[in-house]
Amino acid sequence: TGQLTRLGELQHQTLGANFRKLYVEKLRLLSPTLNPKELYLRSTDYERTIRSAYNFFAGLYPTAKATVPLHVVSQARDNAFPNKKMCPQLARALSALRHSKNYTDYFHQKL
What mean pLDDT, rounded, does the chain reach? Predict the structure, then answer.
């Protein structure tokens, strides 16, 4: 896996700042000052994604003197997205779907 570049760090900080504008300032779904009970900071177990999470947080709460715990999940246990490693049945179901007549007909019509 690659490393997070300085540009990548800045992009995550900018993303966090944009989320702050939306979720703190506009929608008021998050407190203007850090309230750890409102956040769940999560990452996969790669240095790049861990640093991405911390940089996002730095953009979301740039004046925070503390942080929230970062929950790190191994790739094999990651359930944030469909994970064929965690659920072998999912891999079989997706394969069957991709080979079904309805699926191939649909994509041939649309593409």
Answer: 89
